[in-house]
Amino acid sequence: MTDHALCSTVLSDPKIAIIGGGLTGLLTAPLLERASKQTGSSSQITIFEKSRSVGRLATRYRSDSETGKNWQWSFGAQFFTAKTTDFQQFIAPWLDTGLLQPWCAEVVELTPADDNGQSPNIQSKEQWDAVHARYISTPKMTSWGRELAAALNHTTIVFKTRVAPLAQYLQSQNQKQSQNQTYNQNSKQTELFDETGASLGWFDWVICTAPNGQAVELMADSGFNQQDKITKPQMQACYTLMLGWDDVQKLPETLKSQLAPQWDVAYLNSAVLDRIFIEHQKPARDELLPSVTIHARNDWSEAYVDEDIELVKEQLLQAAKQALNWNEASAPSQTDCHRWRYAATIVNQDTKELGILVDETKQWIVSGDWCAKGNIESCYRMAQQTVKAVMQTQ
Fold first, then answer.
1. DSSP state of 210
2. How far is CA 125 from CA 108, 111, 262, in A?
Protein backbone atom coordinates (compact mmCIF):
# COMPACT_ATOMS: atom_id res chain seq x y z
CA MET A 1 0.00 0.00 0.00
CA THR A 2 1.41 3.39 -0.98
CA ASP A 3 1.62 6.26 1.46
CA HIS A 4 -1.12 8.03 -0.54
CA ALA A 5 -3.46 5.05 -0.24
CA LEU A 6 -2.80 4.81 3.48
CA CYS A 7 -3.67 8.47 3.91
CA SER A 8 -6.95 7.98 2.03
CA THR A 9 -7.89 5.08 4.32
CA VAL A 10 -7.22 7.07 7.46
CA LEU A 11 -9.21 10.08 6.28
CA SER A 12 -12.10 8.08 4.81
CA ASP A 13 -13.57 7.21 8.23
CA PRO A 14 -13.12 10.37 10.27
CA LYS A 15 -14.33 10.82 13.82
CA ILE A 16 -16.31 14.02 14.02
CA ALA A 17 -17.48 15.88 17.12
CA ILE A 18 -20.39 18.32 16.92
CA ILE A 19 -20.71 20.62 19.93
CA GLY A 20 -24.38 21.51 20.34
CA GLY A 21 -27.59 19.63 19.59
CA GLY A 22 -29.50 22.62 18.27
CA LEU A 23 -30.84 22.68 14.73
CA THR A 24 -27.47 23.53 13.17
CA GLY A 25 -25.95 20.44 14.74
CA LEU A 26 -28.97 18.28 13.95
CA LEU A 27 -28.91 19.34 10.29
CA THR A 28 -25.14 18.97 9.99
CA ALA A 29 -25.15 15.36 11.18
CA PRO A 30 -27.54 13.88 8.55
CA LEU A 31 -25.84 15.84 5.75
CA LEU A 32 -22.49 14.43 6.90
CA GLU A 33 -23.98 10.93 6.97
CA ARG A 34 -25.32 11.32 3.43
CA ALA A 35 -22.05 12.73 2.10
CA SER A 36 -20.06 9.94 3.74
CA LYS A 37 -22.32 7.31 2.23
CA GLN A 38 -21.90 8.83 -1.24
CA THR A 39 -18.10 8.70 -0.94
CA GLY A 40 -18.09 5.18 0.47
CA SER A 41 -16.74 6.23 3.86
CA SER A 42 -18.30 5.82 7.30
CA SER A 43 -17.92 8.89 9.47
CA GLN A 44 -18.27 8.36 13.22
CA ILE A 45 -20.21 11.37 14.46
CA THR A 46 -20.84 12.35 18.06
CA ILE A 47 -23.08 15.25 19.12
CA PHE A 48 -22.42 16.66 22.58
CA GLU A 49 -25.47 18.45 23.99
CA LYS A 50 -25.44 20.17 27.38
CA SER A 51 -29.19 19.82 27.98
CA ARG A 52 -31.50 16.80 28.18
CA SER A 53 -33.00 17.16 24.70
CA VAL A 54 -32.19 18.27 21.18
CA GLY A 55 -33.30 21.20 19.08
CA ARG A 56 -33.35 24.87 19.99
CA LEU A 57 -36.96 25.18 18.81
CA ALA A 58 -38.08 25.41 22.38
CA THR A 59 -41.60 24.47 23.47
CA ARG A 60 -42.98 24.88 26.95
CA TYR A 61 -46.24 23.36 28.12
CA ARG A 62 -48.34 22.85 31.22
CA SER A 63 -51.18 20.47 31.92
CA ASP A 64 -54.46 21.38 33.57
CA SER A 65 -55.14 18.87 36.34
CA GLU A 66 -58.92 19.08 35.93
CA THR A 67 -59.23 18.74 32.15
CA GLY A 68 -55.97 16.95 31.36
CA LYS A 69 -55.46 19.40 28.49
CA ASN A 70 -52.30 21.39 27.85
CA TRP A 71 -51.26 24.94 27.37
CA GLN A 72 -48.40 25.09 24.88
CA TRP A 73 -46.02 27.87 23.89
CA SER A 74 -43.31 27.95 21.21
CA PHE A 75 -41.08 30.35 23.07
CA GLY A 76 -38.20 30.05 20.58
CA ALA A 77 -38.66 30.09 16.81
CA GLN A 78 -42.32 30.30 15.85
CA PHE A 79 -41.93 29.20 12.23
CA PHE A 80 -39.41 28.94 9.42
CA THR A 81 -39.25 29.52 5.68
CA ALA A 82 -37.73 27.43 2.89
CA LYS A 83 -36.65 29.79 0.11
CA THR A 84 -33.90 27.68 -1.48
CA THR A 85 -34.50 24.62 -3.65
CA ASP A 86 -32.07 22.52 -1.59
CA PHE A 87 -33.87 23.21 1.66
CA GLN A 88 -37.27 22.67 0.06
CA GLN A 89 -36.13 19.24 -1.12
CA PHE A 90 -34.69 18.44 2.30
CA ILE A 91 -37.92 19.15 4.20
CA ALA A 92 -40.18 17.48 1.61
CA PRO A 93 -40.37 14.06 3.39
CA TRP A 94 -41.68 15.69 6.59
CA LEU A 95 -44.19 17.74 4.63
CA ASP A 96 -45.46 14.48 3.14
CA THR A 97 -45.97 12.95 6.60
CA GLY A 98 -47.56 16.11 7.99
CA LEU A 99 -44.95 16.55 10.71
CA LEU A 100 -44.14 19.86 9.01
CA GLN A 101 -47.08 21.96 7.82
CA PRO A 102 -47.53 25.39 6.25
CA TRP A 103 -49.06 27.98 8.55
CA CYS A 104 -51.46 30.18 6.56
CA ALA A 105 -51.93 32.71 9.33
CA GLU A 106 -54.08 35.80 9.29
CA VAL A 107 -51.74 38.66 10.16
CA VAL A 108 -52.67 42.06 11.59
CA GLU A 109 -51.04 45.22 12.84
CA LEU A 110 -52.01 46.01 16.42
CA THR A 111 -51.67 49.33 18.22
CA PRO A 112 -52.08 48.84 21.98
CA ALA A 113 -54.53 50.81 24.11
CA ASP A 114 -53.25 54.14 25.35
CA ASP A 115 -53.40 55.81 28.73
CA ASN A 116 -56.41 57.87 27.65
CA GLY A 117 -58.66 54.81 27.46
CA GLN A 118 -58.42 54.32 23.69
CA SER A 119 -58.98 50.61 22.86
CA PRO A 120 -56.41 48.60 20.89
CA ASN A 121 -56.58 49.22 17.15
CA ILE A 122 -56.35 46.17 14.89
CA GLN A 123 -55.87 46.43 11.13
CA SER A 124 -55.50 43.57 8.62
CA LYS A 125 -51.98 43.30 7.27
CA GLU A 126 -51.75 40.10 5.15
CA GLN A 127 -52.42 36.37 5.02
CA TRP A 128 -49.49 34.02 4.88
CA ASP A 129 -49.97 31.59 2.00
CA ALA A 130 -48.63 28.21 0.94
CA VAL A 131 -46.66 29.71 -1.97
CA HIS A 132 -44.38 31.71 0.34
CA ALA A 133 -45.00 29.38 3.24
CA ARG A 134 -44.10 29.73 6.88
CA TYR A 135 -43.71 26.20 8.20
CA ILE A 136 -44.33 24.84 11.68
CA SER A 137 -43.60 21.48 13.26
CA THR A 138 -46.47 19.46 14.72
CA PRO A 139 -47.62 18.76 17.33
CA LYS A 140 -44.77 20.86 18.82
CA MET A 141 -41.99 22.93 17.33
CA THR A 142 -39.53 20.54 19.00
CA SER A 143 -41.04 17.54 17.16
CA TRP A 144 -38.98 18.02 14.00
CA GLY A 145 -35.69 18.29 15.89
CA ARG A 146 -36.44 15.08 17.73
CA GLU A 147 -37.38 13.38 14.46
CA LEU A 148 -34.10 14.53 12.90
CA ALA A 149 -32.23 13.02 15.85
CA ALA A 150 -34.17 9.75 15.71
CA ALA A 151 -33.41 9.31 12.00
CA LEU A 152 -29.61 9.46 12.45
CA ASN A 153 -27.88 6.17 11.66
CA HIS A 154 -24.20 6.75 12.36
CA THR A 155 -24.39 9.47 14.98
CA THR A 156 -24.28 9.19 18.76
CA ILE A 157 -25.88 11.93 20.84
CA VAL A 158 -24.42 12.44 24.32
CA PHE A 159 -26.76 14.48 26.54
CA LYS A 160 -26.08 16.47 29.70
CA THR A 161 -22.48 17.00 28.62
CA ARG A 162 -20.90 20.44 28.60
CA VAL A 163 -17.72 20.51 26.51
CA ALA A 164 -14.87 22.42 28.12
CA PRO A 165 -13.07 25.24 26.26
CA LEU A 166 -10.75 23.81 23.63
CA ALA A 167 -7.71 25.41 25.28
CA GLN A 168 -7.87 22.40 27.62
CA TYR A 169 -6.88 20.31 24.59
CA LEU A 170 -3.61 22.27 24.35
CA GLN A 171 -2.95 21.80 28.07
CA SER A 172 -3.41 18.07 27.59
CA GLN A 173 -0.83 18.10 24.79
CA ASN A 174 1.72 19.84 26.97
CA GLN A 175 1.15 17.43 29.85
CA LYS A 176 1.69 14.42 27.60
CA GLN A 177 4.84 15.87 26.10
CA SER A 178 6.26 16.69 29.54
CA GLN A 179 5.64 13.10 30.61
CA ASN A 180 7.52 11.81 27.53
CA GLN A 181 4.40 10.14 26.23
CA THR A 182 4.18 9.47 22.52
CA TYR A 183 2.51 12.35 20.70
CA ASN A 184 2.30 12.90 16.95
CA GLN A 185 3.09 16.57 16.28
CA ASN A 186 1.52 16.27 12.80
CA SER A 187 -1.75 14.81 14.03
CA LYS A 188 -4.82 16.98 13.49
CA GLN A 189 -6.84 15.09 16.05
CA THR A 190 -8.32 16.97 18.98
CA GLU A 191 -9.03 15.54 22.41
CA LEU A 192 -12.17 17.04 23.94
CA PHE A 193 -12.95 17.22 27.65
CA ASP A 194 -16.08 17.85 29.66
CA GLU A 195 -16.30 20.52 32.34
CA THR A 196 -15.05 18.05 34.99
CA GLY A 197 -11.86 17.42 33.03
CA ALA A 198 -12.85 13.94 31.86
CA SER A 199 -11.80 13.04 28.33
CA LEU A 200 -14.56 12.77 25.73
CA GLY A 201 -12.29 11.18 23.15
CA TRP A 202 -10.15 12.15 20.16
CA PHE A 203 -11.67 13.58 16.97
CA ASP A 204 -10.45 14.39 13.47
CA TRP A 205 -12.91 17.27 13.16
CA VAL A 206 -14.51 19.45 15.84
CA ILE A 207 -17.58 21.43 14.78
CA CYS A 208 -18.87 24.03 17.23
CA THR A 209 -22.50 25.03 16.62
CA ALA A 210 -23.05 27.01 19.83
CA PRO A 211 -24.34 30.62 19.83
CA ASN A 212 -21.50 33.02 19.15
CA GLY A 213 -21.22 34.19 22.76
CA GLN A 214 -20.65 30.59 23.84
CA ALA A 215 -18.41 29.91 20.83
CA VAL A 216 -16.13 32.74 21.97
CA GLU A 217 -15.73 31.02 25.34
CA LEU A 218 -15.18 27.56 23.83
CA MET A 219 -12.48 28.80 21.47
CA ALA A 220 -10.79 31.25 23.86
CA ASP A 221 -6.97 30.88 24.05
CA SER A 222 -7.13 27.81 21.81
CA GLY A 223 -5.25 29.31 18.87
CA PHE A 224 -8.32 29.08 16.61
CA ASN A 225 -7.21 31.19 13.65
CA GLN A 226 -10.68 32.70 13.07
CA GLN A 227 -11.21 33.75 16.69
CA ASP A 228 -11.58 37.47 15.97
CA LYS A 229 -14.41 36.84 13.49
CA ILE A 230 -16.69 35.06 15.98
CA THR A 231 -17.71 38.36 17.54
CA LYS A 232 -18.36 40.14 14.23
CA PRO A 233 -22.10 39.29 14.02
CA GLN A 234 -24.05 41.49 16.39
CA MET A 235 -26.48 39.53 18.54
CA GLN A 236 -29.47 40.76 20.51
CA ALA A 237 -31.51 39.21 23.28
CA CYS A 238 -35.22 38.40 23.29
CA TYR A 239 -37.68 38.05 26.14
CA THR A 240 -40.72 35.85 25.57
CA LEU A 241 -43.94 36.16 27.55
CA MET A 242 -46.23 33.13 27.68
CA LEU A 243 -49.91 33.51 28.60
CA GLY A 244 -52.66 30.93 29.09
CA TRP A 245 -56.40 30.94 29.80
CA ASP A 246 -58.59 28.18 31.24
CA ASP A 247 -61.27 28.48 28.57
CA VAL A 248 -61.84 30.23 25.25
CA GLN A 249 -64.80 32.05 26.76
CA LYS A 250 -62.47 33.70 29.28
CA LEU A 251 -60.30 35.28 26.59
CA PRO A 252 -60.29 39.08 26.29
CA GLU A 253 -62.36 40.40 23.38
CA THR A 254 -59.18 41.23 21.45
CA LEU A 255 -58.43 37.50 21.15
CA LYS A 256 -61.89 36.10 20.53
CA SER A 257 -62.65 34.75 17.07
CA GLN A 258 -65.81 36.85 16.81
CA LEU A 259 -63.66 39.95 16.56
CA ALA A 260 -63.26 41.39 13.07
CA PRO A 261 -60.73 40.99 11.65
CA GLN A 262 -59.93 37.52 12.99
CA TRP A 263 -56.18 37.04 13.42
CA ASP A 264 -53.43 34.58 14.31
CA VAL A 265 -50.35 36.80 14.35
CA ALA A 266 -50.08 40.47 15.31
CA TYR A 267 -47.23 42.86 14.57
CA LEU A 268 -47.26 45.51 17.29
CA ASN A 269 -46.73 49.23 17.19
CA SER A 270 -45.05 49.21 20.59
CA ALA A 271 -41.79 50.26 22.20
CA VAL A 272 -41.77 47.01 24.20
CA LEU A 273 -43.53 44.22 22.28
CA ASP A 274 -42.78 42.93 18.79
CA ARG A 275 -45.23 40.16 17.87
CA ILE A 276 -48.09 38.11 19.32
CA PHE A 277 -48.79 34.51 18.24
CA ILE A 278 -52.03 32.66 19.05
CA GLU A 279 -50.82 29.11 19.63
CA HIS A 280 -54.15 27.25 19.80
CA GLN A 281 -55.13 28.49 16.31
CA LYS A 282 -52.09 26.94 14.61
CA PRO A 283 -52.51 23.76 12.50
CA ALA A 284 -52.75 20.56 14.56
CA ARG A 285 -53.15 22.46 17.85
CA ASP A 286 -56.92 21.99 18.25
CA GLU A 287 -56.65 20.23 21.61
CA LEU A 288 -54.75 23.05 23.30
CA LEU A 289 -56.12 25.31 25.96
CA PRO A 290 -55.93 28.99 24.90
CA SER A 291 -52.22 29.78 24.69
CA VAL A 292 -50.57 33.00 23.50
CA THR A 293 -46.86 33.67 22.99
CA ILE A 294 -45.55 37.23 22.90
CA HIS A 295 -42.04 38.19 21.78
CA ALA A 296 -40.58 41.42 23.07
CA ARG A 297 -38.64 43.70 20.76
CA ASN A 298 -34.99 42.72 20.46
CA ASP A 299 -33.68 46.23 21.17
CA TRP A 300 -35.85 46.49 24.30
CA SER A 301 -34.78 42.99 25.40
CA GLU A 302 -31.12 43.83 24.91
CA ALA A 303 -31.49 46.96 27.03
CA TYR A 304 -32.95 44.88 29.89
CA VAL A 305 -31.01 41.65 29.34
CA ASP A 306 -29.31 41.71 32.77
CA GLU A 307 -32.36 42.83 34.76
CA ASP A 308 -34.13 40.58 37.25
CA ILE A 309 -36.42 38.42 35.12
CA GLU A 310 -39.38 38.81 37.50
CA LEU A 311 -39.20 42.59 37.16
CA VAL A 312 -38.96 42.21 33.38
CA LYS A 313 -41.96 39.89 33.45
CA GLU A 314 -44.04 42.53 35.24
CA GLN A 315 -43.17 45.12 32.59
CA LEU A 316 -44.06 42.68 29.81
CA LEU A 317 -47.37 41.82 31.45
CA GLN A 318 -48.25 45.50 31.67
CA ALA A 319 -47.43 45.98 27.97
CA ALA A 320 -49.37 42.82 27.05
CA LYS A 321 -52.40 44.01 29.04
CA GLN A 322 -52.44 47.22 27.00
CA ALA A 323 -52.15 45.23 23.76
CA LEU A 324 -54.80 42.60 24.54
CA ASN A 325 -56.97 44.81 26.73
CA TRP A 326 -57.90 42.29 29.40
CA ASN A 327 -59.73 43.08 32.62
CA GLU A 328 -59.96 41.19 35.89
CA ALA A 329 -62.42 38.66 34.45
CA SER A 330 -60.39 38.03 31.28
CA ALA A 331 -56.86 38.09 32.74
CA PRO A 332 -54.64 35.08 31.93
CA SER A 333 -54.51 32.30 34.51
CA GLN A 334 -51.04 31.14 33.38
CA THR A 335 -48.01 33.42 32.95
CA ASP A 336 -44.37 32.64 32.30
CA CYS A 337 -41.33 34.44 30.95
CA HIS A 338 -38.13 33.28 29.23
CA ARG A 339 -34.95 35.14 28.30
CA TRP A 340 -32.84 34.29 25.24
CA ARG A 341 -29.49 36.04 25.65
CA TYR A 342 -28.40 35.29 22.05
CA ALA A 343 -31.65 35.31 20.12
CA ALA A 344 -31.34 37.42 16.99
CA THR A 345 -28.58 38.24 14.54
CA ILE A 346 -28.66 41.84 13.35
CA VAL A 347 -28.71 41.56 9.57
CA ASN A 348 -27.13 44.47 7.71
CA GLN A 349 -27.98 44.39 4.03
CA ASP A 350 -24.69 46.10 3.19
CA THR A 351 -22.54 43.59 5.07
CA LYS A 352 -21.38 40.33 3.53
CA GLU A 353 -22.61 37.20 5.25
CA LEU A 354 -19.97 35.73 7.56
CA GLY A 355 -20.40 32.04 6.71
CA ILE A 356 -18.78 29.23 8.68
CA LEU A 357 -15.34 29.79 10.21
CA VAL A 358 -12.78 27.10 9.37
CA ASP A 359 -9.33 26.46 10.83
CA GLU A 360 -8.00 23.99 8.27
CA THR A 361 -4.80 23.33 10.22
CA LYS A 362 -6.59 22.18 13.36
CA GLN A 363 -9.70 20.97 11.48
CA TRP A 364 -12.00 23.00 13.67
CA ILE A 365 -15.18 24.67 12.40
CA VAL A 366 -17.38 27.25 14.09
CA SER A 367 -20.89 27.32 12.64
CA GLY A 368 -24.42 28.39 13.49
CA ASP A 369 -27.43 30.32 12.24
CA TRP A 370 -25.71 33.50 13.49
CA CYS A 371 -23.06 33.00 10.77
CA ALA A 372 -25.81 33.93 8.29
CA LYS A 373 -29.23 35.53 8.76
CA GLY A 374 -30.03 33.96 12.12
CA ASN A 375 -33.01 31.88 10.93
CA ILE A 376 -33.65 28.16 10.58
CA GLU A 377 -32.83 28.07 6.88
CA SER A 378 -29.47 29.59 7.84
CA CYS A 379 -28.88 26.50 10.02
CA TYR A 380 -29.27 24.35 6.93
CA ARG A 381 -27.03 26.49 4.71
CA MET A 382 -24.29 26.56 7.36
CA ALA A 383 -24.62 22.77 7.67
CA GLN A 384 -24.09 22.52 3.89
CA GLN A 385 -20.98 24.69 4.10
CA THR A 386 -19.64 22.58 6.96
CA VAL A 387 -20.09 19.31 5.09
CA LYS A 388 -18.35 20.77 2.04
CA ALA A 389 -15.37 21.84 4.16
CA VAL A 390 -15.07 18.42 5.82
CA MET A 391 -15.50 16.40 2.61
CA GLN A 392 -12.81 18.39 0.81
CA THR A 393 -10.27 16.62 3.03
CA GLN A 394 -11.53 13.15 2.11
1. S
2. 5, 13, 11
Distance CA 200, CA 210 (A): 18
Read off the pLDDT of residues 205-264 as tens digits, 9 standing for 90 and up: 999 999 888 999 999 999 999 999 998 888 899 999 999 999 999 999 999 866 667 899
Give, in degrees to the nearest 5, the angle at Cα 289 between 286 and 292. Answer: 100
**At 228, is the secondary structure helix, strand, or coil?**
helix
**CA 32, CA 154: separation in Å to the nearest integer?**
10
Residues 6 or more apart whose CB falls under 8 angstroms from that of 213 comprise: 235, 341, 342
Measured between alpha carbons, how far is 321 from 243 in angstroms, rounded to an integer?
11
DSSP symbols for 233-287: S-EEEEEEEEEE-S-GGGS-GGGSTTSSS--SEEEE--SSEEEEEEGGGSTT-TT
CA 163 – CA 20 distance, rounded (Å): 9
Q: What is the CA radius of gyration of the chain?
A: 24
Beta bridge partners of residue 273, listed in sequence order: 296
For the chain, list residues with pLDDT below 50.
1-11, 178-186
Instruction: Specify whether the CB–CB gap between 151 and 170 falls below 8 A.
Output: no
CA dist 372 and 131 (Å) reads 24
Q: What number of CA atoms fall less than 13 Å from residue 226's CA on the CB side? A: 21
How far apart are the C-alpha atoms of 181 and 120, rounded to whole Å? 72
For the beta carbon of residue 195, count every other beta carbon within 10 angstroms.
12
Residue 297: helix, strand or coil by DSSP?
Answer: coil
